[in-house]
Specification:
Order of helices and strands: HEHHHEHEHEHEHEHHEHEEHEHEHEHEHE
Helix content: 25-40%
Largest sheet: 7 strands, mixed
Strand content: 5-15%
Radius of gyration: 23 Å
Distance between the termini: 33 Å
Number of domains: 2
Oligomer: single chain
Number of helices: 16
Strand order of the largest sheet: 1-9-14-13-10-12-11
Number of strands: 14
Bound molecules: adenosine monophosphate
CATH superfamily of the largest domain: P-loop containing nucleotide triphosphate hydrolases
Shape: globular
């Protein structure tokens, strides 16, 4: 195991489980035991130079107390009684078999409420977050259309490469043996291979907005014959500055097509976009699981003389608890630097961020999923929407810019009824 090979960082005297802050060290849970109350937690510890100060000025002021929550009650999963079984859906028998092979027994609420309408050809507006089963909610009706008519085509637009690939994996599970193919068109991967894929027989294109736009402009994707379009995580695409790209793509689709619009929230520009491009959509809202209730949240106080990375390593050395750890940092280069340093110190770590090549990101993700590495350092954008099982800890090595991002980060742990821990370094 990796603890045998690992070089330990300099030994420290601090004890994270106790409330007291020691000289040069850190304390966990310090807020509740006499720490500075409220205010921007990093304001005093912002010693990283002018650049960093500038970036921080756009930060939301987050009260440190919001990073602390001892309530570790594991939320009882609300039992949803679906009104359908997959057998009830008017879908092809081959598709029913594929669903059974994936061990999906009951439709999730979003599937239960939207699939019957989607099968009738209605547009769908799904207000649902990741983890709700939204992918199958659009893939099942789309695949059923293609099974019935091999001329059917669909385009699925997702904010990140990782999400696009997750959708592809699920698509391939459902379409196994049906001779129905998809092609993934995302940035950071060679466009020539994607063009070859598009020129072969394929019914479904899954991609990120920028690359899809490029391929449309090159004449490799013809949206005028698309019969279905999916916007997955529309609000994230807005956050990432893709609103003009997705508007352009939607404008190119015919009016006689089915639209699936999924978004966790409904900010005004997305609401307007859907108003413009959806025809009388069936609105399905699914209560997003409040995973934060399953997450014990605490802060690691660091002071001026603390060596942050040593403190981090002391935590990671507790391998019994810190089994699978996702660490967030703000900038791509900071993520890379931290991951390189952890590897140098003997930890099984990897990183995902926007500067990494697509294949490298995929490889790291797979290793993290398969527990070949147990530490992944990531930027927010790279980790968005990922469904990685059994993450025991989320560590905010740097404070997120907004509380919304914080909630999103900590939602990577405490999933599927398991307890998770989120720790935030504050200065
Ligand atoms: P999604 O929100 O589409 O990313 O799905 C989240 C997770 O739930 C994925 O791991 C899916 O494979 C899984 N899932 C989706 N629908 C079902 C279902 N009806 N039964 C069991 N698992 C499901």
């Amino acid at each position: 195991m990796y603890n045998n090979t690992k070089q330990r960082g300099p030994s420290r005297s601090s004890n994270y489980s106790s409330g007291g802050s020691r000289s040069g060290g850190a304390s966990r849970g310090g807020f509740s035991s006499g720490g500075r109350s409220g205010g921007r937690p990093s304001s005093g510890g912002n010693r990283g130079g002018g650049n960093r100060n500038k970036r921080k000025s756009s930060y939301e002021r987050i009260d440190v107390s919001r990073f602390i929550s001892k309530s570790t009650v594991i939320e009882k999963e609300e039992i949803y009684l679906p009104t359908h079984t997959f057998a009830d859906f008017k879908i092809d028998a081959k598709l029913k078999l594929a669903i059974a092979n994936k061990n999906y027994i009951y439709p999730s609420p979003i599937q239960d409420k939207s699939i019957p309408h989607a099968l009738e050809g209605r547009d769908i507006l799904g207000i649902a977050d990741t983890g709700t089963g939204k992918t199958a909610a659009f893939l099942i009706p789309i695949l059923n259309k293609i099974i019935n008519n091999r001329e059917e085509t669909a385009i699925i637009i997702a904010p990140t490469r990782e999400l696009a690939i997750q959708i592809e994996t699920e698509f391939n599970d459902f379409a196994r043996g049906m001779k129905i193919y998809c092609v993934v068109c995302v940035g950071g991967a060679p466009i020539s291979a994607q063009i070859r894929g598009l020129r072969r027989e394929c019914n479904v294109v899954i991609g990120t907005p920028g690359r899809l736009l490029d391929l449309v402009k090159r004449g490799e994707i013809n949206l005028s014959t698309t019969r279905s379009i999916v916007l997955d995580e529309a609000d994230r695409m807005l956050d990432m500055g893709f609103i003009n790209d997705i508007t352009f793509l939607l404008e190119k689709t015919p009016t006689e097509r089915q639209g699936f619009f999924f978004s966790a929230t409904l900010p005004k520009p997305i609401e307007k976009l859907i108003e413009r491009f959806a025809t009388d959509p069936v609105k399905v809202m699914v209560k997003t699981r409040d995973t934060s209730k399953n997450v014990e949240q605490d802060v690691i106080r660091i002071n001026r003389d603390s060596n942050k990375i040593d403190i981090l390593c002391e935590l990671l050395d507790n391998e019994k608890e810190f089994k699978k750890v996702l660490i967030f940092s703000e900038m791509k280069h900071a993520v890379e630097k931290l991951s390189v340093e952890l590897i140098k110190r003997g930890y099984k770590a990897g990183s995902i961020h926007g500067d990494k090549r697509h294949n490298d990101r995929q490889r790291t993700l797979l290793k993290f999923r398969n527990n070949e590495i147990n530490i992944m350092v990531a930027t927010d954008v790279a980790a968005r929407g990922l469904d990685i099982p059994e993450v025991t800890h989320v560590i905010n090595y740097e404070i997120p810019q907004t509380y919304d991002t914080y909630i999103h980060r900590i939602g990577r742990t405490g999933r599927a009824g398991m307890k998770g821990v989120a720790l935030t370094f504050v200065g």
